[in-house]
Each structure stands twice: as C-alpha cells, then as structure tokens.
Amino acid sequence: MMRTTSLIVAGLAIAALVGCLPSGLSGAQPAAGQPINVLATTTQIQDFVRNVGGDRITVIPILQGDDDAHEYQPTAADARSVAGADLIVTNGVGLETWFDSLGRNARSGVPIVKLGEESGIAVRPGDEEEPLGDPHVWFDPTNAQRMVNRIRDALDAIDGAGQATYDQNAARYDGQLDQLDRDITAQWAAVPADQRKLVTNHDAFGYYVNRYGIVFVGSVIPSLSTDAEPSLSDTLRIAEAIREQNVRAIFTESSISPRLAESLSSLAGVRVYSNLYSDSLGKPGSEGDTYIKMMRFNTQTMIAGMTG
Questions:
Q1: What SS3 state is found at 51?
Q2: Distance CA 102, CA 142 (A)
C-alpha cells in the first residue's frame, strides 16, 4: 500500500510539472538531420536500441545499472525525458507499471513500443504479483532477437532515411545473439543434468531455464516480482527442497539485497554465489554492462556454483 501511495503522489507531481512544459514539445516527427531521441526504460532495452540505432540515435535512459525495474519510482527528470522523446521503447508485460502514468507525458503521435507484447514472444504465465505474465522475456536470446527486430521496425517507420543502417545493424547484432545462444547451449551440454538446479533471489530466470534445460528449484522470494515478501513457510519449503534435491548453491542478484538469500543459505547449508544480473544490466565497467556480457557472466557463474 505504501508503494502504491508513493507512486500515485509521484505521478501527480510529474503530471503537474509536465503541464508546465513548453508548448514547443509537441508533434511526433524528429527534426531533420538531428539524431532520433529514443527513450528506453530498462537497461537491457537500452543496449538493444544502441546496437540497432548506432550513431543515428540518442538513447535516453530511465533505469540505470543495477536498478530494480519492479520497484523504480519515476522522477520529474524522467517526465521531461518522455516529453522530449521521438520514440519510446519499453519492456511491457507489466514490468514497468510505473510507466503507465509517466507515458502520458509523451508528445502526441510518438510511438510507445512494448517489446514483450509486440515481438511475437510466447509469454510465460504470470502470478499474483505479475498477472500479465512473466515479464523477464530477455533471458532467452531468441526472444532478444525478436525484440531487436521490433526495434528495427520501429526505427525504420519513423526514420526512413536510416532504414539501411538500422537493418544492417540489426542483422549484425542478430548474428551476435545467435552465436551467444549457441555458446550457452554448448556450455550447459557439458554439465550433468542432475547438477543443473537453480535457486535465485526471485523467479526471474524462467525463460533462461526453459531454453537451456535447467531445473528451477525455487526462489527466496517466491514470485516473479521483487515486491513480494516470503513467509516463514515459504522459506522452510525452499530450504527443504534445496536439501532434498542436493542443490549446491543459492545465487543472489545484483539488483536485490542478498540478506534473505544469505539467511536461507545458512538454513539450508549451501553456499551463496554472488551476483547474477537479472532485472538490470550491471553498471558501466562491470562484467554485466551489456546484454551479451550479462548472459555470458550469468552462465559462467551458474555453472561454477552448480559444479564446484
């Protein structure tokens, strides 16, 4: 309830501010010869957009490295960024509920693309906290390829002069994602099936475990969202599952406090491995500051924890 109230207050403040923005911020067409301003909510989407758009665009970020997309609260600066965007790209599938009000500040006619809902992705079922489905669609590289293609199409539509550039960039990056998928598949093929057992902070890796044949034993926070709170019975249940299935490690996530995972590790008698990148890429200069680096780091970390 406190989080909901604070979001409402923030939304009202942002709306009041944007109501005072200059009237020149109207119309959807980017200025001729100027870079296309593309607002991208999550860090993964920002990376996809940069790879497709190249030098023809300017990426306007909302989330930063290690931010939690579930709990983010928008600012007045975010409202100004939305108002100045020529194209807005979000994850959708209920991940950025805070963007529902923020997006109203977009200029008339500016496209708002929800990649998770508009890229032909088969969305996994949701839960009480995420009723629209599992929003963590990027954890399957084939889904990332679909998202990249949707970004390409959106940029082609608003900047026809750059179509050849966008198409070439998307094709190049698609090849890198294809290689990433092949490499990860080969790495997991070398791990015995009975050791591929994952326990994380929250249930963010469903698309990844489905893609690579891993057993998801459970999560410290038994939800697709970090907003949920585990009960004592939840904690005891996952601790028992860890012991029964001979799980070797619990993996924390960079955008979530490790406190609960560390408590569970003591209760279950297993090691903690830090830190997987989940809802956000890492900060610049980290081992997870791009999508491809994040996926490779997560894979290497999981395998080390499960086989070590």
A1: helix
A2: 30
How does pLDDT run across 106-125, given as a tens digit for each residue?
999 999 999 999 999 999 99
pLDDT in tens, 38-88: 999 999 999 999 999 999 999 999 999 988 888 899 999 999 999 999 999
DSSP β-bridge partners for residue 273:
251
CB 39 within 8 A of CB 81: yes
Distance CA 140, CA 270 (A): 28
The whole-angstrom separation of Cα 138 and Cα 91 is 9
- Model's pTM, two decimal places? 0.86
H or E, element range at 15:
helix 2-18
Residue 36: both structure tokens together: 């296309």
DSSP output for 128-172: SS-TT----GGGSHHHHHHHHHHHHHHHHHH-GGGHHHHHHHHHH
What structural domains and CATH numbers belong to the chain? 2-181 (3.40.50.1980), 190-307 (3.40.50.1980)
